[in-house]
Design a protein that fits this description.
This protein has 581 residues and is an alpha+beta fold. It has 2 domains: 289 residues, Sulfite Reductase Hemoprotein, domain 1; 146 residues, Sulfite Reductase Hemoprotein, domain 1 (2-Layer Sandwich), CATH 3.30.413.10. Strand 11 and strand 12 form a beta hairpin. Helix 6 runs antiparallel to helix 12, helix 9 crosses helix 11 and helix 15 packs across helix 16. The protein is globular and about 85 Å long. Keywords: 4Fe-4S, Heme, Iron, Iron-sulfur, Metal-binding, Oxidoreductase, Thioether bond. GO terms for molecular function: 4 iron, 4 sulfur cluster binding; heme binding; metal ion binding; sulfite reductase (ferredoxin) activity. This is assimilatory sulfite reductase (ferredoxin). Catalyzes the reduction of sulfite to sulfide, a step in the biosynthesis of sulfur-containing amino acids and cofactors. Belongs to the nitrite and sulfite reductase 4Fe-4S domain family.
Amino acid sequence: MTTQTTAPAPTGTAERPARPERPVRPPRAARPNGQWKVDGTTPLNHNEEFKQESDPLAVRERIEQVYAREGFDSIPGDDLHGRFRWWGLYTQRKPGIDGGRTATLEPHELEDRYFMLRVRIDGGALTTDQLRVIAGISTEFGRGTADITDRQNIQLHWVEVESVPEIWRRLEAVGLSTTEACGDVPRVILGSPVAGVAKDELIDPTPVIETIQRRYIGDPSLANLPRKFKSAITGHPSLDVVHEINDVAFVPVVHPELGVGYDLWVGGGLSTAPRLAERLGVFVTQEQVPDVWHGVVQIFRDYGYRRLRNKARLKFLLADWGVERFREVLESEYLGHPLPDGPPAPLPDTPGDHVGVHEQKDGRFYVGVAPAVGRVSGEILAKVADLAEEHGSHRVRLTPYQKLLVLDVEAEKVESLVAGLDALGLQARPSLFRRNTIACTGIEFCKLAIVETKATATSAIASLEERLGDLTNLTPITLNVNGCPNSCARIQTADIGLKGQIVMDDDGNQVPGFQVHLGGGLVSADRGDEGGLGRTVRGLKVTADELPDYVERVVRRFDAERTDGESFAHWAHRTDEEALR
């Protein structure tokens, strides 16, 4: 036994007893992240519990056999707020609840007895027969609602659970579904809206999208991912599928030795922790895409973080692993072979929204039109189907920019079609703001939203068309309007991104408004660079009523101060904060 001694105290001072030594605490063990291949599959939260208790895809039988017959009150919570998403169903917001109460009420207090139903449309490709069926469902079961989303889906509202089996029957009769349109699954695959028809297309992604859909969508082995998984595939040089914000994306490249194929990107995503995807630096052939896609999904399933929902996206795993480790795990554990190094895709020199009249590779034309922020209706969709067929077309495409294309139009019929679509409010030659504004669902239907978006954005477009009509040389400026921080409308990648929140007006009243993000953007012809996230100006918030005033003010300042060829994004990042207010 050792004895602790005390050194003699200095002269004139009392002797102080020595402090006892504190025991050294062992380092706290790291909490498991819920990575199946590291920590095992024991659920670490309730979301993981309900996914393991019952296969979420199996809820379909209960919807058809029980809930559709016994009604809304028969649906238990884990099905209603969880597993229903695997079949494209969310309860919608109860009318009359203001945005200030969004964060204070429980889900059951916010929700109505009606559902949003998301129709899954991989690659945005529809026949006129399919479009007419969706239109009929909208009219008969959804009070005429229909929104084209920036994920190439169509969303309907006011759907009752009693109607869902009949809706599924009608959709599936024409080759459509709502399978895994929502939920912790591989969601809709974004694809080039001009796949197979564009004159300048490098490679047609249609076969690989169809193969992935056939092999893997609805596969129980991929139906319990840590969270949602977003995919994008394009063969068009405009890179028209917003690849930088998807979990996995394939964009076209020409390898100097191996020919045309794809450049692989992984780990993109926005919401409250935005991160752009990164290149793995590999070249993927057309034939390899489905297996590589499957490998990336399995990495997410097996190594993705499941303990905390706000960390359960692939972007967080990639941030921790880095590109080199991710590539090594993909090649060694999931593919069983290396992939060759590949070049990056060139920067695009044409816009990726495909609005306007464009010649196809077969000499016919496609016409791209802009609804107001994606808002259409069952009636409008039915008339689009009729118009397309009257002009010799049986194919329609949706875009990741809330736009709509009619394919296969003979030259002599183009102007007649353009006029007919314009009469429906679908403009082939829209103003810059009509063309470049998108908006999420907003407080009208969404339980997470804080402010109204669709009507606010539509009103702002009309006002800005009038206010800024004199700026004839104005370059395109994107305006993205979101009802909450979750960025369904990609606010961090817009020139002007608006995040809905309650703000204070000049009289001290709390009113709907927006936090402003400036200078974001994805790879584009207009920017002339590789894009990036917008900046948040400290304290810069505008009320919904002030929105047109603010946009006019900042756009006019940009027009006055920009250098030759300078993009809004570049200007916004170099300008001091006071000039942006």
